[in-house]
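To the wet lab folks,

You asked to see what we're planning to order before we commit. Fair enough. Below is the target structure as tokens, and below that is the sequence we designed to fit it. If anything looks off to you, flag it before the synthesis order goes out.
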């Protein structure tokens, strides 16, 4: 075979191989971790996912088909500092919060509104944020090589963690539910007031309203007390 012919064959083979490599590169999609890191809006979420080990669900192709609702850095800026401090001190609670943003099955933008189960164990609820408790989907159905990402504007909290933060007095009992009532960290309305005057229309006399029979009980680990009526 002539040298010129061989040269043409090798040249055509090289072109075909380059074309194949280019086509393959064009069809390979990034992983969920690739998307989160390259996007630039999820630095806090990625850092916490790595610190809790949850990142294993979206950094490679060994686990596929899962879904993330990813809160942006701006979403974390809306979380009260006291809440973040409490979570940073409690690794288990932080783990649950990050797991609550991950679903082990593919869930599109319509499905996440129907409370699918999360990696944390509780159904997803997009009204579980702090302080507004309402998350809006900013970007939906971002398809990657190993799962789907939905971008949200609030950090979500599973029920047990949210209740624990309320119990510890880190967030108000009535957060997101209108004007707060007089509540203690234990969620008990404070006892009846003493020395409240009332005026009668006939005699124009003032009498004192007496507190119902009971006693004050201090809430363990706090400086708060609640009024407990005596059992009849």
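Sequence we intend to order:
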């Amino acid at each position: 075979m002539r040298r010129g012919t061989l040269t043409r064959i090798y040249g055509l083979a090289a072109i075909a191989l380059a074309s194949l490599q280019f086509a393959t590169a064009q069809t390979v999609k990034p992983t969920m971790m690739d998307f989160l890191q390259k996007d630039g809006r999820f630095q806090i979420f990625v850092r916490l996912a790595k610190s809790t080990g949850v990142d294993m669900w979206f950094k490679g192709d060994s686990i596929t088909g899962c879904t993330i609702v990813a809160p942006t850095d701006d979403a974390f800026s809306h979380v009260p500092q006291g809440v973040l401090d409490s979570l940073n001190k409690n690794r288990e609670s932080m783990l649950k919060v990050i797991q609550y943003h991950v679903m082990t099955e593919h869930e599109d933008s319509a499905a996440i509104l129907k409370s699918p189960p999360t990696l944390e164990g509780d159904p997803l609820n997009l009204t579980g944020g702090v302080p507004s408790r309402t998350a809006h989907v900013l970007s939906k159905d971002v398809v990657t090589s190993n799962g789907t990402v939905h971008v949200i504007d609030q950090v979500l909290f599973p029920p047990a963690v949210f209740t624990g933060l309320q119990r510890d007095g880190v967030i108000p009992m009535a957060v997101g539910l209108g004007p707060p009532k007089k509540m203690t960290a234990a969620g008990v309305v404070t006892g009846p007031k003493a020395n409240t005057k009332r005026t009668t229309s006939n005699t124009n006399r003032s009498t004192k309203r007496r507190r119902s029979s009971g006693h004050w009980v201090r809430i363990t680990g706090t400086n708060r007390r609640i009024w407990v009526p005596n059992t009849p």
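Structural context that might help your review: The chain has three domains: 1-28, 32-166, 182-232. The mean pLDDT is 76.

Thanks,
Computational group
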